[in-house]
Design goal:
Two copies of one chain form a homodimer.
Chain A: H1 13-24, H2 39-46, E1 52-55, H3 64-70, E2 81-88, H4 91-98, E3 102-110, H5 114-122, E4 127-131, H6 134-141, E5 149-158, E6 163-164, H7 172-180, E7 185-194, E8 212-215, H8 235-252, E9 256-259, H9 263-278, E10 288-290, H10 298-302, E11 308-310, H11 319-323, H12 341-350, E12 354-357, E13 361-363, E14 368-369, H13 382-385, H14 397-401, E15 415-419, E16 423-425, E17 428-429, E18 431-432, H15 436-443, E19 460-462, E20 467-468, H16 476-485, H17 491-494, H18 498-506, E21 510-511, H19 533-539
Parallel strand pairs in A: 1-2, 1-5, 2-3, 3-4, 5-7, 7-8, 9-10, 9-12, 10-11, 12-15, 13-18, 15-19
Antiparallel strand pairs in A: 5-6, 13-14, 16-17, 19-20, 20-21
Helix pairs in contact in A: 8-9
Chain lengths: 553, 553
């Protein structure tokens, strides 16, 4: 036996480092409270060059007081930070790089800022570690991206640091645990500080995980990303929704599901209480949901279609409605929702029958991406929802329906449905020869293309032309023919062989509306259970309070 | 627009039901505290026939006071329960079914009780909902298996119900959240009740998620499942460990990993500071770990190989060692570990390069299972660790090394290594014509066989004969030949064509020890950094306190 222990090794360096930084701060704080006006000075004491910093830009809520404050520190004092952020959503997130405060970025999603990331990379100011899905970014926090600092947002705190995150719990539990339990420094901005824990509606994060709280100069920014106005749903989307319900949901007896965001899936949500009802499907399909609280789901909930909804995050305006539907939503003793993106991502991967969502580009094999050239938009959650989780071992009727043969060694599959119109607009075909993601990979010298959902994971392609049941394809060639058969008058669609398509329809590999007993002329907006935001408000008995931007009355 | 709302619908039925049950209990409780002697009577008030009940039998710790108490309720009052349990570990777990208190079971793992489950099924006393992996069972708690009651275990509570779970946090956060936020009733047994929250080392679960606490009649049961005595490691396992380090870890630059439990992987852990050091690999491989705190990892930690370890659960005897190595382990402000099986499962799926583990049977294609006939042993976590997560989008050098070609549409893969001796004992070949799991599926009329790891997920098969780099196989036939080439003198191994095997070795598809520059005669137990439990204790400077059953001095 050899015992080459370096007995002089210090195994407490992270903790001592944290204690040192905190002790240097004592003159600027009042217990756990950083006075609002001291936040920049406090950051300059607590954060050191090169630190790994988690900043809660997440899908909806933003720790924006903290991000704005971080952008005010002196780059002479704090620089070369390694930022770890679920979502890059605000301009100051990237100002950090322009100013030299930060240098490296690991992230999951960037909507409006995606073009600027590319520019900063070209200018040599920003180095991307990797682009992740949400859940793999959380995962890395526990492995090789462990944060020194976590900057987070909550609704309320008591003076000890117990946190009420409110209905928008979202990413917070996954982010805070990685820092709190590895001697990282945890700072929460909150909208309100109360004296005692008993003054909080409930505790979402215990004070013993939190180092500092700071009252923000204004409530944290939150955006209604999941509201779709029914007025903008087209008859074509109604037709696609009818096909989805009859040709996929009912056919496979889909009990539990996740809807991506968009007008296509909003149409389905609004067709359940009408078209779905007329098919006698209530109680037979769509009983359990993992999704953000889409306002367009209200009519289905009110008519008794929905047994449960577990949410990634919340949606502005839905707070009172959710609090008054605790039989459906996950709520605390205080009545408000508890969302949790990490657990909802788990649920959506391992416990639901189906994912259905839209995309911007689909190639002839069925690979898809929302990436367009120059925009490093990231992945968000779609690749996780839109794949067949190979670690699943329990079955359900829909899952088993995807089993390719009777072998005991064959598995079922999660249904992954791509629901797209063949044209994005009059000039832009959804079906492309090559995904822009490939050009992107070549431009940025990525080892692989940023594909959102791989062909091998897709089970159905649904367009206004029909449904391709691609899980039944016996060869790549047949798969391509099936996709071409529903690609309409796009170049891919025009390449189809009419005889092959006719045979695919006879064999049940492709179904056009008429094959499903659906008349195109029946696909009217009149079938939607709500035709406006105002209708949704009415359905909710006034509990849904649409944000001003969606009001038109 | 139609508004068919059933305006008389009660959306608060779950909450009212909970309030009613709790109010009926007021005479038996003191605030949040159920007096120990009242637990059976309290259960008879709180639990109703047909309830979905989560019971924390998990991998290590057991809410055994609550399970023993539940087995004492009157089956006339409580019957037909639907039990949801990560692990069936104790006899009273199944007594519940024999007595008619419970009827349906959803679970993940059952070690010693697996034979009895099959018997109870045959007797018509137990109906299995499904057998899951841990993480998919948690996932279903948020979808269609939402609990009415959760029976959980913690170390300490204050009088309000704030819980300190101790280093064995494990499954608790995932289980409690599903009940607490959908009007389930949450009951914790604890080893100690303190007056005030400030008397707790830290808070792991806030009181606002907890309904009742009860002082257990004795500390909860916890078993050291992950301790392997180095004395029992054989020279053959040393040889396999050397091949793993040189032919897999070093070859692919594995930075982050999960080790399954067993003597094979224990050998690797003990070879890193010796053989690994001699190859100059320190700091280049095995830096980040997701695994339970194996005592055999102590020498690698002490010699500076290990930067971080995130744990599913804890291991008896390792508490002080962990608390004194906070630079490596995830610990709270109080110093003790925070484990978390849900997050560690996430980390192991989405953030590590490799899983390596043993199994009992491998078929010629590379499918494997630990199932033997009549024993419904369940899956645990191996299928999740041992698969390629299709939702991963970031890359690492090892992951990219599995990329089959240069196409931008090709992905890397997680390394999934099956490490087995060709014979379990002198009569039992590990390589079989057909897995027993298939006979099991036929016996119990399962829709698919309980396969632990599918061939399509395996990248390497490692035996004492050599390594088959099966991720390189270009056909199923070649794959079979590669596996046969390392199957020794098993029937499968004897079926190999020597010329084919020679070619596979020349092509780098199979490597024997000599191909890796390893002499079989060098594979001595002397290479192990520790040869006994006592050695491990010495390495730890007395911080590791081996449980009595592992002490022999």
């Amino acid at each position: 036996m050899q015992t080459n222990t370096d007995s002089g090794h210090n195994w407490f360096s992270r903790r001592q480092n944290k204690e040192r930084r905190m002790s240097d701060l004592s003159h600027l704080v009042d217990g756990s409270i950083i006075p609002t006006e001291n936040i920049v000075a406090a950051m300059e004491q607590l954060i050191k060059p090169g630190d790994k910093v988690v900043l809660e830009g997440n899908n909806q809520k933003q720790a924006d007081f903290l991000s704005r404050s971080l952008a005010k520190v002196s780059p002479d004092k704090i620089n070369n930070l390694h930022m770890i952020m679920p979502s890059i959503s605000r301009s100051e997130h990237l100002d950090l790089f322009e100013m030299g405060i930060a240098r490296k970025l690991d992230f999951s999603f960037s909507g409006p800022q995606s073009l600027r990331i590319g520019q900063l990379m070209e200018d040599g100011l920003l180095e991307v570690g990797a682009i992740h899905t949400y859940i793999e970014l959380y995962a890395r926090l526990y492995v090789d991206l462990n944060p020194n600092i976590a900057l987070l947002a909550g609704f309320k705190a008591d003076r000890l640091g117990n946190i009420y995150t409110g209905p928008s719990t979202e990413d917070t539990p996954a982010l805070v645990e990685a820092a709190a339990f590895r001697d990282g420094i945890v700072i929460f901005q909150v909208n309100e500080i109360v004296d005692d824990v008993s003054d909080l509606p409930r505790v979402d994060i215990p004070a013993s995980w939190v180092d500092y709280i700071v009252l923000a100069d204004q409530p944290f920014f939150i955006e209604p990303l999941f509201t779709r106005d029914p007025r903008l749903i087209t008859p074509l989307q109604v037709l696609m929704g009818m096909m989805a319900i009859k040709g996929i949901y009912a056919k496979h007896q889909v009990q539990s599901l996740n809807h991506g965001i968009g007008f296509n899936t909003a149409a389905i949500e609004l067709l359940l209480p009408t078209y779905g009802e007329s098919l006698g499907l209530k109680g037979k399909i769509c009983r359990h949901w993992t999704l953000n609280p889409h306002p367009t789901l209200i009519p289905a909930i009110e008519t008794g279609w929905v047994e449960s909804v577990h949410c990634f995050g919340t949606e502005l305006g839905m707070e009172d409605y959710i609090a008054n539907r605790p039989d459906v939503f996950f709520t605390g003793k205080d009545g408000s929702m508890r969302s949790n993106r990490a657990f909802c991502q788990l649920a959506g991967q391992y416990a639901v029958d189906m994912f259905i969502g839209s995309t911007l580009q689909v190639d002839g094999d069925g690979n898809s991406s929302t990436v367009t050239r120059g925009r490093l938009a990231g992945f968000g959650g779609a690749p996780n929802m839109g794949h067949d989780p190979g670690g699943r071992r329990h079955s359900s009727p829909a899952w088993l329906d995807m089993k390719p043969d009777d072998s005991l060694l064959s598995k079922g599959r999660k249904l992954v449905v791509q629901m797209v119109e063949t044209y994005q607009d009059s000039n832009k075909s959804t079906f492309v020869e090559e995904l822009d993601a490939l050009a992107m990979a070549r431009d940025y010298k990525m080892p692989l293309a940023p594909v959102m959902i791989y062909a091998s994971d897709v089970t159905h392609v649904l367009t206004e032309e029909g449904i391709a049941y691609v899980y039944k394809a016996e060869s790549l060639e047949q798969r391509r023919a099936m996709i071409a058969a529903v690609a309409g008058v796009t170049p891919l669609g025009l390449s189809q062989n009419p005889e092959v398509t006719a045979q695919l329809r006879r064999d049940g590999l492709v179904a056009y509306p008429e094959d499903l007993g659906i008349r195109r002329s029946d696909a009217s907006r009149d079938l939607l259970a709500a035709s406006s935001i105002s209708d949704l408000e009415t359905w909710s008995n006034g509990l849904y309070k649409p944000p001003a931007k969606f009001r038109s009355w």
